Each structure stands twice: as C-alpha cells, then as structure tokens.
Amino acid sequence: MNVVVCVKQVPDTSDPDTEVHIDSSGKGVDESKFSFVINDADNYAVEEAILLKEDQGGEVTIVNIGPEAANQVVRMALAKGGDQAIRLDDEKFAFSDITATARLLSSAMGDLEFDIVMTGCISSDDGYSAVGVTLAQMLDLPHAAMVKSVEVIGEGKLKVGRELEGGLMEMLEIETPCVLTIQTGTNEPRYASFKGIRAASKKEIKVMDLAATGLSDDQVGEAGSTAVMVGYSVPVVGELAEILEGDAGETSAKLSGILKEKGLV
Amino acid sequence: MHDIFVLAEHREGELREITLEILTLAGQLAEQSGGKVTAVLFGSGVDDYAGKCASFADRVLVVDDPMYENFNSAAYQQALALLIKTEKPHLVLIGNTGQGVDLAPSLAVELDVPYSSDIVALTLEGDKPVATRQYYGGKIEGRIEFKDADLYVLAIREASTPAGEGGKSGEIQKIDNPVTTEVTVRKFLEYVEAAIGEVDITQSTMLVSVGRGIREEKNMPMMEELAEALGADLSASRAVVDAGWLPTDRQVGISGKTVSPKLYLTVGISGAFQHVTGMKGADVVVAINKDPDAPIFQYADYGIVDDLFKVVPALTEKIKEMKG
Ligand SMILES: Cc1cc2nc3c(=O)[nH]c(=O)nc-3n(C[C@H](O)[C@H](O)[C@H](O)COP(=O)(O)OP(=O)(O)OC[C@H]3O[C@@H](n4cnc5c(N)ncnc54)[C@H](O)[C@@H]3O)c2cc1C
Asked: Residues 35-74, chain A: which have Cβ within 8 Å of B?
C-alpha cells in the first residue's frame, strides 16, 4: 500500500502572539514574526499514512509546495516514517489558487505509483477545504472528503468514514487508487523518535521547480488561477465584547461580580 | 443566460437549512441579474422537499431515483455535470457543507470552470461574481475575483445568508435520471450516529468550554476546578477533543453539539466559525483569551484579554469566596 501525503506549512495561529497583519502589497501578510508548523489536518494525514504502511507495507511519499524553510515540516514527516519527499518550489508558484495548487500537486504525482493520496481536509490559513478533491478529479480518481476512519477491506477496496455535521459518520466503500482528505482527530499523531530524526536528515527531498513540473507559466501562480484573491482587508465586525480591564485579580473580581449580578453564581 | 442553479441538500429524511439559505441568496442575485433560480433536487421520494424548494425558486428540477436516496458525490457529480451541460446556468451554488466540499471542487474541474469555496458573501459586478472569504481563522477577509467564464461553481458557507420567507411558487419538473449506469467507484454504506456520553452538554445550564490555549492535558484539572466552583459542566473546542483531553460528546460546534446554556465561558478558544456556530444559543458568553484579535471577542458579551494561566486560578478563587 503506497501512500502519498500532501503537507503544507502554515503559521501557528493557535499561538496568541501570532499577529496577522496585511502587508504593503495588500495581497499577503507580514510573515516576519510567524512561527510555522505543519497544518493541523495534514499532521493527521501523515499519521494515517504511516499507520497504513505499518499495517500493509509499502512506502509513504511526502509532497509539499513551499520554500526551503518548509523542509522542517517535510523532514518531520520523514522522521515519523515517510520514505521520500518532493518539494515544489519556484517563485512563480506564489498566489496559486485552489486549481493551480492542485495542478502543481498533480504534476508531482506523475512518476509515483500509489494506492492512496491523502491531504488534510482543510488548511488553517486559507481554509479552502478543496485542494484534495480538486486534485482527485485532475488525476481522474475517486475521492472522499473529511475522512475520519480508513480501513482496508480487500484488494483495491477501502471502507472510509466521512465526518459530517453533528459528528454523523457517512460510511462508504471506495476503490483504490483514490484521494482521501483527512479530518483532524482521526488518530493520535506520534512524535518523531531521535532515531527517526537522524534517519530523516539523510533522506532525499527532491526539489521540483517550474521546469521540472512540465507545466507552463500560465498554468501556475496567479496566471494559472481562475479565482484570484485580489486583496485582503480587516473584517468589519459588529459589537465587540465588553473588555474587562486590569490585572488577573481585578478582571476576575469584575467578572465574578457580573456573574453574581446576573444570578449565574 | 443569467440562470442560477442551487443544489438542494438533504440527509436522513430532512431537507437541510443550507438549501433555503442558498436559494435565498440566489434569489437576491437573480433579482439583480434578471435570471431565474432553479433548485436541483436529487433524491428518492422527495416530493415534500420539492414543495419546500418551490417556495424559494422559479423552478425545481427533480431527479427521483433510488440511486440518490443517500448522498454519493460520485453519482451527484455525474448527474449534475450532465444537467449543467444541457441547461447552461451561469452560476451553480452549493453549500460548503460535508456534502458540498465532497462534490463542488471535482465538479468544477470536470466542467473546467472557475471555483471557490467557503464563501461568506457573494455579489455580482456586471455579469461576474465577486466573492468574500475569510483567511487565518477569520482574522482577515479576502476579495476573490474570477477569470471570465460562462459558468462559475461556488460553495457557500452555512448561515452566511439567513433563509428568507420564501413565497414563490416555482414549477416542479420531474426529469429522467441523466445517469444511466450504476456508479461503482464509490458506494454509500450507512450512517453512524455520534456516540452519546454520560453528560449531555446540550442540556447544561452552565458550561466552561476549554480550548487549545490550555496547551497541555496536565492543565485540565485547573479547568475542572473552575467548572466545579461555578457548578458548570465542561465542554470543549474540537482541538481539545482531537487531542483526547475530553471525550467527543463534549465538543461544541458544527461537527459537535449545539448548546444553549445560561453561561458559556470560553477559555483559550479562538472563535473559529465552526465553533461559534454551536454556541449561538447561549445567554451570556464570556471569553478569556490572550489575543485581543481573537474572533471569539466578536461573539462574547464580556472578555478578558490576558493569560488564562493567571486568570483561571484567580477567578476560581473569587467564585469560591463568593459562594463561601
Ligand atoms: C469540517 C470542520 C468541522 C469543524 N468542527 C468544529 C467543531 O464542531 N467545533 C470546534 O470547536 N471546531 C471545529 N472545527 C475546527 C475549527 O476550525 C478550529 O480549528 C477549532 O475550533 C480551534 O479550536 P481552539 O479555538 O481551541 O484552538 P485555536 O484556534 O488554536 O485557538 C487557541 C486560542 O487560545 C489562545 N491562547 C493560547 N494561549 C493562551 C494563554 N496562555 N492564555 C489565553 N489564551 C491563550 C490563542 O490566542 C488562540 O486564540 C472544525 C473544522 C472543520 C474543517
């Protein structure tokens, strides 16, 4: 069972000090103070792929679109059990939309033999929840989105569970090769061992630029996009909460007073 | 042509609210463009849904076939693509839901047309759609412009347009199933309901809701103590449930529970759309979060912008003192 996992490096938005400021171009954000992590859902996809490999044999290939700095995310996935990696990197790839991003990923799959391609079901920065399913159609493969359980039930067949609203699971049977977009909470992502980290530092990360993808200028980046994000803005928000001021002693005194007044304590 | 197609969504015997929301949005756009709104309904024995859609649309296209009793994106995609190629609408609107995200992107690739997802606002400028989306967990918004095309496929966020009153009486047209061979690459098996746990947070009057901001499982006792002092139950964001710090049945949000307590006190929760959807029924919402830009403050009545590790112990003490 060979699995390809697509991983993205994203700013750690769970860090309270990660401030998101629109940059002077209006189409990007100031990344200078970001700390970067693997996208949450992709982390579960990596784990699911490695679990399948441990159970079924085969290889796990990590695919990333990103700058050299994204190697840290790729290497961590290799350290956990990935066998090889491809990183697509060219300045022409900037501002790729859903379609152009999926096209880039599909260009990396050309020479790979796989049974399953996994992506995270959503990224925490752009939040499209669409790249995996777009990729599936480009590869002309069946897909299932928001998958929270994967079980091999026979030659070329999987039983997967898609998580819907209210936590309802839609169980279905799907033929391989296929594309699955993995939801958070699917498994318990492992930590890499020291041995794994050492081994990963020796594994090759193949870098593909535009020429290596075989795509043309107008198939990637903004030129290759059909839905272009032309400008960021700060959302106009309604009424904000009443912010209680002071140190922790003062704010907690104020809050408990309010709760008492409202008959909640 | 300016016609708008809206895909009707149903599940386990219910027409889902998103259908009426997008039909309402489509109605607003059609008024501007002079087009007609068509609800497209795939299902088995769905006269009742067709009737509901008809009061929000100019026309309802119904494909009634056992193949569509339950959602299967592979079957839906084939059928929709065929219908779209003959009917040639200008916009196809689909909910950015568990069903929609499994269907809309691949449909757009098959039709080779522009696509965007999780749209929170949609307008027409001339003939062309312009979409607004959120980025970085709702901290900023972006404007999406599309390349020229005859057709656009757009996935719309739930609850972004409230459903209107209806009041139309669209024509209901039953048509033959355009898909003539069985779909085999993917088969629906069954639905499995979420497990029910020992505490039903949908019935709780007081909730302390824990987010990823608490960082580690070893900080849970501090939250338990606060909840106990307040006489509240513990609930959580998805991030906390994913990490295994609380069981799934404590999750509030779109893929968890919808709660309506008198007090909903969030600690270290950022306020993602998927979370706040589940807490809109709460009376008083309080947020403790170190980040002044966290979207949760848009939904809270009272906020404390500070380190939760300082505020939570202090607050627990104060509540205990007060209760004597
Ligand atoms: C299909 C789908 C369904 C989903 N369903 C749900 C759902 O049902 N429920 C749900 O909750 N989510 C759901 N999500 C996930 C959702 O998008 C968010 O990822 C999730 O809600 C984030 O949880 P959080 O707020 O706890 O974590 P984060 O977004 O990481 O926020 C952590 C917050 O803690 C704050 N913080 C950190 N340290 C401190 C400190 N020391 N003191 C004070 N504050 C601090 C930070 O400022 C930050 O705002 C869903 C996502 C998808 C794609």
From this structure: 40, 44
